[in-house]
Amino acid sequence: MKKYILSMLAAGIILTALFDLFLLRECRQSYADAKYAIAAIAKTKETGPSAVRWLKEFPDASAQAFGKELLAFYGYDAKTPTIWDTQYKTTRNKILAASAAFGLLLLFVPLSVLLFYEKQRSKQLLALEQTLGRLQDADATEADVPIPVCDDRLYDRIHSLKEQLLGARGQMEQEQERTKALITDISHQLKTPVSALKTSLELLLEEPLTPEERLDFSRRCMRQVAGLENLTKALVNVSRMEKGMITLHVKPAGIQQTLRSSVSRLYVIAARKQIAIELSEDSLEEDLPVLHDAKWTEEVFVNLLENAIKYSGAHTTISIRTRRLVQNLRIDVTDEGAGIPKSEYHKIFQRFYRGAHAADTEGSGVGLYLARELIERQNGILYVHSRTDGKTGCVFSVQLPLA
């Protein structure tokens, strides 16, 4: 707007100057022609209607040339001042004065408009500065932009920025709450094993112990160190998951190899506890292609089988069965443990949650949380339910989309 007004002002001044030059040139020529015509009339002694006709219709070029020669004969050349030159100067001065007045008016109006425009822009900038200040320093919900001093596009942009800041502020608050909760959970998880490890080490260092007692406390220290190592690994995976550092490569592949790999990793541990892991026969008949990441899906089933082994007694069986649904493949991991109360079904997948049935069993409380996150990021679902055959235990079901 400012550049447009200044451009129009410059164009007006230039056009006025050009018009003045043209007008003055024509005026000077007219006075000179009149001077030569009067001289010709005087020489030819034209009177009456003839002289009036000469003045009214203006003599032709030959008559003007005759008048010019006549004036030159008497010593009046183009530089010799005459009454006509005086009249021309008077007229010229009036034209220049009028042009100057018009130029001032032409200058005053755009400058007034420009001043008004700049004042409005200053109001807009002040309003924007105050609004951005409120967005930055105060509650974004109070940072409204006055419509009269802000055009529609800028108004929409500011409100879009406001919504983005609100969203970012909400995410930041949620992240702060999650960080506080994580620190609290980690402190709680570390407290017990660190305390037990400290006690065992103090006894090893300070108390006179028999070789058998020393071996027992050393083994306790190793168990606590192993627990801390598992907790550290779990925390690293949680952090990687929540920061988006775990990349899943989902592609069509049979699920049987993933299940067999999971079982083979835990077969020895289950055998030590005299627990059998069975893949149902009907699960092996058709290896349907499923959209999944084999590596991380294997980790999910390893976690489910570890929990089943951990919470099941000796001489029990853990079964794995697949069932084809309309659009998904369902994999059930069924154990014969103590089971999980229905009131805890929605809690056991929370980060660091440890149910009452798990109070006496070692664990970090993040395995099921990670398992559900991994499955859901593959467009699947993971849930728990009770057995329907009347036996104790529970069933963890994983559903993954068919390819």
Distance between the termini: 61 Å
Query: Structural class, from helix and strand content?
Result: alpha+beta
Q: Into which percentage range does the β-strand content fall? A: 5-15%
- CATH homologous superfamily assignment of the largest domain: Histidine kinase-like ATPase, C-terminal domain
- How many DSSP E strands? 7
**Domains counted in the coordinates: how many?**
3
Residue stretches low in confidence (pLDDT < 50, at least 5 long) are none
Assign an overall shape: rod-shaped
Q: Biggest sheet, open or closed, and with what strands and sense?
A: 5 strands, mixed
Mean pLDDT: 77
Can you describe what's shown?
With 403 residues, this protein is α+β, with helices and mostly antiparallel strands. It folds into three domains: 2-137, no CATH class; 153-242, Helix Hairpins (Orthogonal Bundle), CATH 1.10.287.130; 251-401, Heat Shock Protein 90 (2-Layer Sandwich). It has ten helices and seven strands. It has helices at residues 2-44, 48-57, 61-73, 83-137, 152-206, 211-242, 256-272, 281-284, 294-310, 367-376, and strands at residues 251-254, 275-279, 289-292, 316-324, 328-334, 381-386, 394-401. The strands form two sheets. A five-stranded mixed β-sheet has the order 2-4-5-7-6. A hairpin with a 3-residue loop joins strand 4 (316-324) and strand 5 (328-334). Helix 1 packs across helix 3, helix 1 runs antiparallel to helix 4 and helix 6 (211-242) runs parallel beside helix 10 (367-376). The longest helix has 55 residues, at 83-137. The chain is rod-shaped, with a radius of gyration of 50 Å. 19% of the residues are buried. The mean pLDDT is 77.
